[in-house]
Amino acid sequence: MSVEAAALALRVSNLNFQYKKRLTGKIAGIGAAAGLADISFEIRAGETLSIVGKSGSGKSTLVKCIVGLVRPDSGDIFIARMDYLHAAGPARKAIRRKVQAVFQDSASSLSPRMTVEEIISEPLAIHRVGNAQSRRERTRSVVDAVGLPYSFLTRRSAELSGGQRQRVAIARALSVEPELLILDEPLTALDLSIKAQLSNLLAELQEQFGVAYLHISHDLFGVAALSDRVAVMHGGRIVENADRTALFTNPVHLETRSLLAEML
Amino acid sequence: MKYVFHRIAHTVVLLLAVSICSFLLLTLAPGKPFDEMRTNPRVSSATIAAERTRYGLDRPIVERYFYWAKGLLHGDAGFSFSYGMDVRSFIWAPTRNTLLLTITATILAWLISIPIGIWCATSNGAIDRVTGLATSLLVSLPEPFLALCLLYVALRLKYTPIGGMSSLDFDAFSIGGKVLDLMRHLFLPVLILVFAILPVLVRHIRASMLDVLRAPYIEAARLGGVRRMRVIWRLAAPAAANPIFPFVGFSIGYLLSVSLIVEVIMQWPGLGPLFLESIYSRDLFVVVDVVLLSTLFMVVGNLIADLLLYWNDPRIRLS
Amino acid sequence: MRHLSLLRISVAVIASFYLVAIAAEFFAPYGFAVSDREHTNCPPTRIHVVDESGHWHLRPFVYRYVELPGELESYQEVRSQRYPLEFFIQGAKYKFANILSGRRHLFGVASPASIFIFGTDEYGRDQLSRFIYGARISLIVGTLAAAVALFIGLGVGALCGTFGGWVDVVIMRFTELFMALPWLYLLLAVRAILPLRTSASVSLLILLSVVALVGWAKPARLFRGVILSAQELDFVVAASVIGGGKWYVFRRHVLPQTGSLLLTQAALLIPQFVIAEVTLSFLGLGVGEPIPSWGSILAPLARYESLALHWWLVLPVCAVVPLFFSYHEVTSILQRDDIPPMM
Q1: Structural domain for A26, as ranges
Q2: B17 at the C interface (CB within 8 A)?
Q3: Are both A4 and A92 inside the same structural domain?
Q4: Do A75 and A134 fall within a single domain?
Q5: Do C and A have ≥3 inter-chain CB pairs under 8 A?
Q6: Is the ipTM of this complex over 0.85?
Q7: pLDDT reading at A50 higher than 70
Q8: Least confident of A44-48, A228-232, B312-316, C46-50
């Protein structure tokens, strides 16, 4: 393993997936779901890759493959340098710990029945990290990190604002020290000022925890601030994958240009 | 048309499955036929063996099912060990009597509950509240209890004859007299059945009607100056009918159940008393035949409901 | 607010029925099999507050009833001596749950007088006592059968909802069979397979299992639906994304979502299943004599000569109305509408 390869948080190579005809509607919901065609990309440790594409471009399918909700037809996924698709049992679970996610709709992605403390410590409990005492300490430290007061620990998610809920979701994801954090449009549903706050927070947390981000977005608005590199998806393929500045200044693919045009 | 075909196919499969289950019930139930004969010292074991062969009881179970099902299709409903004759020779009369009771009650219940339900949904609060309380009380009375209460009232009032289906001197009546006598005997059992199902139907009709009346197009029609009665009967009622159609099937099934109790209490010579008697005496062919008949009525009822929905709802008809 | 107080009253009524059923020995003035040969078919004992000479008494009292000479089953009060109504009276000895023995009954009168609030049946047994003991059988069977049916329903619903595929298809088709025939015919057909004359405890078990067996299909379908939609919820998906296993996600996130359905179904099924027990016992397919159930104490009424002569035999019918009414109210409030669902 080369030095460079050792520093990869995620490597996806030649990933293919086609929805079975009967299941398309059920899994994808209302919109037409795109499959994946020969997807390959890498994310280095501590780096941010943004994947941008319009709805139906296949980006949510890609996320589902990486978090294990959907099994690809062929290809490889290496998370934290470990073969994810061919692992089973405890090994698979150990890999699962290395990738966590924050979703778009914080109101529905946090259980209404659990307190903030239970929510944040849930991954710790699932992955059996430490004992009750150390979990409590860990929970408090990530709550500190996302800038929430301890008094929130006993509240339930319905009592929090959208921005606060998203901080809870980030704290939950960071509690098990993942190497890769998937941000599935985490800022879309928020107000402009809160967007900026959270965007700064995410940047700080990346410094502090050394975690890589895979940032999914349907437009280029949020991407500029956060990402090192940007990949554009269209029809289940990655049509362009470039440095952020290069992509913004010199877009090659038609789809990229169309996304850029939307920004203006 | 595809919808209709689909419903009919579904019904047939359901009937087939019920027939298999009934047959298993028939075969696996403890206490086989001829057990009583076996305890009789005057019947030789050879006779029993011969009887068993005659009814095919010594064959493997799958073969026996097909033999039995084939017989059923040809109208051979098996042999009643307690009556000592073929089931088909005596099952027609109770079937007719039960259907007479249940269908009369179903039709009457719908004829009464539709206007009441619509009236409740469209009129002011007081009427609605009173009906609401009355239906709650009726719903809270278990069916056998309801039957007994009405029976008690009828015994006190002595307006109608109680028990049985005809007077003792029925044969001496003229045709008109016979019909009148039958109707007089039908009155109380039908009344009980109607009272049993009325609260359920009224509430659902009312709820469905209220739902439709809240729809914007009804509001628009009202504001547009369409007469109130026209809005209710021509616009709202047909739309409110769609969610109500499944209750046609339900009401038939439910009234069949209640009529079993009512028939037993009122000594109405229908399937109910026959069913109960055949259970007491372990007359299994009769048990299975009654189960199959009741299933048949119910699935036919559901089929009618489906077809009514098809006829009334253009969305299904066009798809 | 009105709903909340109505809910409280309904729950209190239901709870008191259960309390009386559980502590039947204490609440019933007499045993369920005690027959008073001198008071067969006796009408309800009248409770007086004014005596012969027109004096008012704070404590209500009764008179002794004797049969009119020469007339069968016609009774008159012996006005010469008053028997005051007493609470926590020493009466017949009983054993509660085979451990606690006692003699106290909630109310009663000193012998030789007796108090029959609901009158007596043809064997001279106190109808009220039989009604109270009958509540025990009917409520136990109905409630336990509902619990069993809900348990099976939840299990089957979970199986279908989580595994899907052909398991789901086969089981869901199978449940349709249970809804293809009228429920009472189904109930009796299932009852017909099982032995008719058995000991009381076996009959009880048979009643329970028949009712539960007939009733599990509908809740199973409902639970399946709730579980299916719960699995689509974002936070449930999130739980599996953060690494929760199938069983963990089901137990911690999916199962709690079935809570409200469990509650409404319980409020709906218990009265239905009590009625099922009542119906079976009424038709003579329940627990045999002398053990009473609400169904079997009404069975003699099917001979309507006796109903015509002895009006008090309908009293138990009226006495159950508050229970079923309360259950109905609870269900309506839980479902937030007043539509009785299809059975």
Answers
A1: 1-98+181-186+213-264
A2: yes
A3: yes
A4: no
A5: yes
A6: no
A7: yes
A8: B312-316
pLDDT tens-digit readout, A175-213: 988 889 999 888 877 888 888 888 889 888 988 888 999
CA distance B93 to chain C (A): 19
Count how many domains chain A has: 2
Whether B207 has its CB under 8 Å from any CB of chain C: the answer is yes
As a whole number of angstroms, the distance between CA B274 and CA B97 comes to: 12
B108 and B19 share a domain? no
Final residue of a structural domain among B87, B120, B149: B87
Residue B31: pLDDT over 70: no
Instruction: Please tell me whether residues B72 and B111 are part of one structural domain.
Output: no
Q: Are A64 and A165 in contact (CB under 8 A)?
A: no
Q: What is the pTM of this model?
A: 0.84
- Spell out which residues of chain A touch residue C233, defining contact as CB-CB under 8 Å: 108
Q: Which residues of B touch C206 (CB under 8 A)?
A: none
> What's the pLDDT tens digit per position in C152-162?
999 999 999 88
List of residues 6+ apart from A84 with CB closer than 8 A: A68, A77, A78, A92, A95
Min CA distance, C173 vs chain A (Å)? 20
B30, B59, B87 - which closes a domain: B87
Hey, are the CB atoms on C235 and A109 less than 8 Å from each other?
yes
Is a pLDDT exceeding 80 seen at residue B84? no
Structural domains in chain C, sorted by start: 26-129 (no CATH), 130-336 (1.10.3720.10)
Interface of A with C (CB under 8 A): 67-69, 93, 96-97, 100-101, 103, 105, 108-113, 122-123, 126-127, 172-173, 176
User: Which segments within A23-170 are labelled E, that is strand?
Assistant: 36-44, 48-52, 74-79, 82-83, 99-102
CA-CA distances (angstroms) from residue B200 to B71, B242, C3, C10, C56? 40, 16, 21, 21, 49
Strand (E) or helix (H) holding C9? helix C2-22
Distance between CA atoms of C210 and C220, rounded to whole angstroms?
A: 16
Instruction: Count the domains in chain B.
Output: 2
Question: Is C209 at the interface with chain A, CB within 8 A?
Answer: no
